[in-house]
Model the fold of this input.
Amino acid sequence: MKRRDFLKQTSFASGMFFVPQFLKAFEQQLPKTFSHKKVVIIQLKGGNDGLNTVVPFRNDIYHQQRKNIALKENELLKITDEVGLHKSLKSLQNLYDKGFVSIINNVGYPNPNLSHFRSTDIWQTASDSNEYLQSGWVGRYLDFTKENPLKAIEVDESLSLLLKGKTQNGLAVTDAKTLYNSLREPFFKNVINHNLDAHLSEHNLGYLYNTLIDAKSSAKYIFEKTKTKSAANNYPKNLFGKQLKTISQFINSGLETQVYYAGLTGFDTHANQPNTQARLLQTYAESMEIFVEDLQKNNHFDDVLILTFSEFGRRVKQNESQGTDHGAANNVFVIGKNLKKQGLYNNLPNLSDLDANGNLKYKIDFREIYATILDKWLQVNDKAILNKSFSKLRFV
Amino acid sequence: MKLVHIQHLYNRIGFGITPKEMARLSKKSKQQIVDEIFSSSEKITPLKIDTSFLKDIQPKDLKDQDKKRALQKINREKVNDFSVAWFYRILNPTAIFREKMTLFWANHFVCESRNNVLFIQNYNNVLRENAFGNFSDFTKKISKEAAMLGYLNNKQNRKKSPNENFARELMELFTLGQGNYTETDIKEAARAFTGYNHNFRGKFVMRKYHHDKNEKTFFGKTGNFTGDDIIDIILEKEQCARFISEKIYRYFVNENINKNHIDQMVAVFYKEYNIEKLMRFVLLSNWFYDDENIWTKIKSPIEFLAGIYTVVPFNFKKPKQILLIQKLLGQVLMRPPNVAGWQTGKNWIDSNTLVRRLRLPSILLNNTAITYSDTGDEEAMVNDLKSKKLKRKGYIKTTVDWNSFEKNYKKESNNKLISLLLTNKILSGTKELLLKNANIPKKDFCIQLMSIPEYQLC
Done:
């Protein structure tokens, strides 16, 4: 018998075909013991200007420091007597009014690094600012829980450090069907079957084979699980909208994935900030509102927590080109159904107490947010994943 | 020189080698071969496309919004044309090592300009002209290129309110690397670069009213520094020679740094920042040919495509499809993801890109259909895409020069083809599979060889 045929037959014999029906039924009712909670992480890439997003419009310093780009009271969606959201965030305000949003201010870390890349790495790896880690915190979540790549998906063409662990990586998938179809060719099947039991530790070559094997099995699972489920059709017709639509389709199909990651890019506004930021924030907010509605309609919103961050905020003082330079602490949005603390989680930044570079000082370490999500939401040992102990917050 | 070493050398300084060339070089010594590589790359042939549409354009034309938009549209198309031209230059280089170095520098002094083809063409040729030159002159020239002045906002850098973007990336990405400077250094350096600008035709000008003439204190030195002074002071630090050496090592030798080798490179490079001398030293060193450095690097998408082309030349019937293929593999020439450039090595590979790479030889050489979701770009991300479908299926139309393949490889058996295209370090299961099919037509066998994970390495 050829090895390939043998494999095919034995996998039939030992596979799901002979699992008794009562076990299968049991499997479908498992969720109570295993955490079926999900986290959707959104990065506003390029460093979103948090001060012009959640705006302290009664603060004189704000207006003095930002002569051309400060937003006036009538350009804002007021959420308190002193705080307004950028007017492009109407859709987010709708969620806010329903109690689905918690805005955490002054989030950062000691000795902030103002480089996009390094700062993104710091946020993705959860490292100290002088520490260089090769794995992301979601990747280490996969390592720690010994989960397969399917548990974390980045809806993008390639995989970020965030989802790369020491022993396990998440998956990058833009479209399950495309991936599945590409892998159906018999030649790949043969290459994989011929090497299933091979020693695959050899540095780069092992990585290539493991990626291929993971891709093959995951693509099949995702494709078959999601092929009948479609998402709402009113997402913004751009790539961020498409990403959110894909995530909603995945969640609503009951995929076992627990962490999703997507990003909206273009926030590096050194010049002519107002128009660019307005457009981007609108795309962000509209996508979020439709996403939440879509999840609600399918009864999944209770299980989903959405975290939005940016690698840093921008400097308090604007520059001469109607833009802002790289800054430090920033606000973070948490969106979810049963938040313990809705609305503004804490006070807005103190604009008269800046660091030596004229940047906002942080009050909450971003890793406290991760620790909270890992501990209270995903119910795993946050310390083992973050390598350190952080105090927990009260938003979930 | 040993065949496998010639193969290795040509994988790294170029994109592979034909059996005929290999046979010719096998009679020569390492020194002779390296000398030949440098002498054949001595000549600089700037890459130019037709930009005559810009000839009569005057600054006042940009005040007219319609004219401005129309001009932008042509420029964007021309930037794509330039990208295609660059790709064909890489496939058919006369100065092969110079083109490989140009590609390397494009991912070092990373820059993008979509709205002015002239600026980006000039910038690209500065990379080519200085590929083996003096790193100090090179950095100074780059700092004055119109494309770079725009990309990192240095032309918006004014005395009254400095824009720090260029100063920061200069140190972080171009010369010293993270952690080797302070925020104060960035602020002071930014002041020295104030007033940098260019005229309408892209020529550098110093706007002296915007330049901060006061004293700056940078890395412990105080003076009325200009941008060039700042670059000189940075290069006085050995760390700069180390940073560049490490980057070259990762690209040409091994992604894992060997400190001893780097120390040797720094000793050569720091003396006068002569890039050619550094590269000669690397290619002539014994460790360059160590087993652990051979066939261990994951090819970049461009290396992968050009490598296939070296074995089987192909032509795209629709040139724009070159850009589509590059996009699907994760590296579009002229369109870096950000100022840090493309992350290389394992970062090229994930479930998506790997599967596309494995299918690509069939797609290019066998006219197989390819399905893809539109990856878009920053521009598309924020613009409305209502009219465009985000998922497509299409045929990549190519003409394949199998004659050239037959001519080059007619003497070689399928079995021999394995060692000509790959290393012997093939996974045993895969090798077994290949040998089982060893009697299929040579063309098909070649496509199969290029479709296995091993072919992703060089």
